[in-house]
Write a structure and sequence with these properties.
Helix content: 40-55%
Structural class: alpha+beta
Order of helices and strands: HHHEEHHEHE
Distance between the termini: 95 Å
Shape: elongated
Radius of gyration: 29 Å
Strand order of the largest sheet: 2-1-3-4
Length: 195
């Protein structure tokens, strides 16, 4: 069996030569690849910088820090490990004009989808980090929302700080929801007509 000899056809005289990709496309691809490597290295450095960690990781994090701050990517890692900070919750009593009272907590564990629960949790966390002169505005905003949601005449708010148990306490049998780990502070009573 004889094989046919294949030849590459040459362009006819006067026909345009096949187009080559411009060098600009190559540079754009290189730049995009370098940015992706930089971006993932920055995210890994942010996650790895949560103590205890090595000096090398901390030095890398310092290099990436401006980039992470501009894109708001340097958040949330300390929330979960290695020693989470206390969480802030709000307990409320919404009293209606007929005397019925609705009691609850923000965030409510029964919220679905779970992402909504986390959204409310982050909102209450902002109370803990807000400047003292702004906290009253946060409380009034929550009271206004609860007045509207429950058609209430007045709302009482209590701020709850939940201190997570230490590793040693857990090893000794303490539960995450031990009563002694909660600290309550009455915030105030808000009249819905004045909000």
């Amino acid at each position: 069996m004889k094989r046919k000899k294949t030849t590459v056809a040459e362009p006819a005289k006067g026909a345009p030569a096949p187009e080559r990709r411009p060098a600009v496309n190559r540079y754009v691809r290189w730049a995009a690849n370098l940015w992706l490597v930089w971006h993932f290295a920055a995210v890994l450095a942010a996650a790895g910088s949560v103590g205890p960690t090595s000096d090398l990781v901390v030095a890398a994090w310092k290099v990436f820090r401006p980039y992470l701050l501009v894109l708001y990517l340097n958040h949330g890692y300390n929330f979960f490990a290695p020693q989470p900070a206390p969480s802030t919750l709000l307990s409320f009593q919404a009293e209606r004009a007929d005397g019925t009272v609705v009691r609850g907590r923000i965030p409510d564990r029964s919220l679905e989808p779970r992402l909504l629960y986390h959204r409310y949790l982050l909102l209450t966390e902002h109370i803990a980090v807000a400047p003292a002169d702004m906290q009253e505005h946060w409380y009034r905003s929550y009271a206004r929302h609860l007045c509207h949601k429950y058609s209430a005449a007045k709302v009482r708010l209590t701020r709850i700080t939940h201190y997570p148990p230490t590793m040693e306490m857990v090893r000794n049998g303490a539960r995450l929801d031990e009563p002694f780990s909660y600290e309550e502070m009455f915030v105030g009573e808000f009249s819905c007509t004045e909000l």
